[in-house]
């Protein structure tokens, strides 16, 4: 049974790169009918940010990334799922490593470590330097006991043996071999806050929670050799999960890791939901609040660093995306974050989703203006104009003119499209419309317009643009015959007559 986990730290809003990691874990779990676990890795208490955990849960829910077990789920067989609540568990495993000689106590103060960095160029706490430091490998046993009994602060470091190759079998990158000479003796536990570091906690948790695959960002690849060594030290090599390190999300220009600064500079979100900083109240943009649909965001992210092996881009049915997903089609190279492509996906999904969802979005906005169209009216209008919108906020101006006659006219549009002869053209169209039966269809209105314009040899562009300015008040909107049909002939005639009166002076 496949078991994967998404294990973010509650240090602020969930970055879009983290969202993609969660999505890939979810798709992989669903593809193999496995389990998606949400765990909170809050061992770094100094960086904890209030509200971050709730934000993570809400973001995943909005995106449709379902949690089967852990935080945000009632199913918690291997709990607790917050690392800060698992201190007793970690102490036991830290002690195991010490007793096996795989880890040791280090009592070096901050000042002593700084001095070592000054005295020894390119200092690394490892097999070549540990004998020069204050730790349980270099100090007499009596001194170690005295320090522990006196309550002296210490850390526990992993003892990396020199001169061996460590093999990491990565499902995306293949076999990665790293010499242990490149590793230092990482800190696994700090007595000051009675918490492990990420390295120990995630290994213990993944083992106890029976995680089968660790799918995470490329930035964790340098840590993978240490994690392999930890599995060996615990005697868990046979149950070690398989690793898959996802490529980085790159800046829109393609060089360097995507950051919040890139989004601020170019005007696009790098967080799924809006975030208000608890420190200074600063607000960061979110995809939801900017008017993106969760399906569009997920579809867009899925194709950053993965491809289905075909030309297919849109996965309107999530089941199709799940069925297509596989780690062997994930790229080793970074994926450029094209925020304009994200808008394209959103435009497509606005046209694909049930129109009722768009109606639910618009109703409160229309109600604020005192407008209460019927469901049939709003549905018909949306079906005519939703292809005009990239983001959800684009819909309001596209539907508003159907329910509010223009009281002002776009100055640039008037200058460009309202000519001295325009009132005469509109009078001819008014006469045409008043002669049509009230029951005529949209197609019949379209045909009548074209027959009139062509038969009277009127300039098509000038006539249509004049009608549009009269009906909409601006040079945009649905097709003319759709507008006339949805407004109704009497209202369309009234708007044209009013425009003639207002603009003729």
Characterise the protein shown here.
By secondary structure, the protein is an alpha/beta fold. It is built from 21 helices and 15 strands. The strands form 6 sheets. It has a 4-stranded antiparallel β-sheet with strand order 4-5-8-9. Helix 1 (16-31) links the parallel strand 1 and strand 2. Helix 13 packs across helix 14 (375-385) and helix 14 crosses helix 15. The N and C termini lie far apart (77 Å). The relative contact order is 0.08.
- Helix content bin: 40-55%
Q: Give the total of beta strands.
A: 15
Specify the structural class.
Answer: alpha/beta
The parts where pLDDT drops under 50 for at least 5 residues are none
The side-by-side strand order for the widest beta sheet comes to 4-5-8-9
Tell me the β content: 5-15%
| Mean pLDDT level | 96
What does the main sheet amount to?
4 strands, antiparallel
Q: In angstroms, what is the radius of gyration? A: 32 Å
Q: How far apart, in Å, are the first and last alpha carbons?
A: 77 Å
Shape: elongated
Number of helices: 21
Detail the topology: elements first, then pairings:
Layout: E1 3-6, H1 16-31, E2 35-38, H2 52-63, E3 69-70, H3 87-99, E4 103-106, H4 110-119, H5 141-149, E5 155-158, E6 165-170, E7 174-179, E8 187-190, E9 195-196, H6 198-208, E10 213-217, H7 224-234, E11 242-246, E12 249-250, H8 260-266, E13 275-276, E14 283-284, H9 287-290, H10 294-302, H11 318-324, E15 335-336, H12 339-352, H13 355-367, H14 375-385, H15 395-403, H16 411-417, H17 422-434, H18 442-455, H19 460-472, H20 480-487, H21 489-503
Helix pairs in contact: 1-11, 10-12, 13-14, 14-15, 17-19, 17-21, 18-20, 19-21, 20-21
